[in-house]
Amino acid sequence: MKNILGVLVLFSLVSIVSCETENKTNEVQEEVIGGLDTARFMADLAKVEASIDTEMPEKKDLQLAITMFSDYSIHFPSDEKSADYLLKASDFSHHLGQNSTAVVYIEKIISTYPEYSKIESAMYNRAHYLDFELRDTVLARKYYLEFIESYPNSEFISSAQARLDQNFMSAEELIELWTKK
Fold it and tell me: Please, which pLDDT band fits residue 172 given cuts at 50, 70 and 90?
């Protein structure tokens, strides 16, 4: 009788431990399947950052970095590094000639991280990219004016004001302006 009771107790313990292990395994699998494997994402991000930490990173590495940096900001929106990664994504997009995408990343920084330490340069770059790269002078003018109003003591004020003054000059007026200087 003792043997039967011992076997039943042992069987019960094995069943309980087995069920707990199975539940924990299912929870981990659901976390990986249903969401982001954070540890793996961070390891991949570190590899990407190492691959672009050269003098001349390859285009494919820059494109992958853009994607990873954007993904980071999506998965970790409250992390202070998210704004930095979005700024890097914007810079790399601009470098690759993807200027519309660069502006989109800057827009996200401005709307999501208004207290970001580099918001001033981000706002100037948005107007600058629209002006010089995308040739949208109407929108660039709007953003230059917004920038000037928000940061009247910025080191970029003279450049922004010069662009506002020159955007609406005819070719002849611009030639005359430059020949006087």
Answer: confident
Tokens of 120: 């001033």
Question: Is 45 buried (19+), middle (13-18) or exposed (0-12) by CB count in 10 A?
Answer: middle
- The string of pLDDT tens digits covering residues 65-110 is 999 999 999 999 999 999 999 999 999 999 999 999 999 999 999 9
Tokens of 35: 């969401």
**pLDDT tens-digit series, residues 140-150:** 999 999 999 99
Query: Which residues have C-beta within 8 Å of that of residue 130, sequence separation ≥ 6?
Result: 103, 136, 137, 139, 140, 143
Please, how many CA atoms are within 13 Å of residue 77, restricted to the half-sphere of its CB? 6
**Whole-structure pTM value:** 0.75
Q: Which two tokens stand for residue 37?
A: 């494997």
Q: Which residue type, as a one-letter code, is found at position 121?
A: S
- Helix, strand and coil percent figures for the chain, each rounded to 5: 80, 0, 20
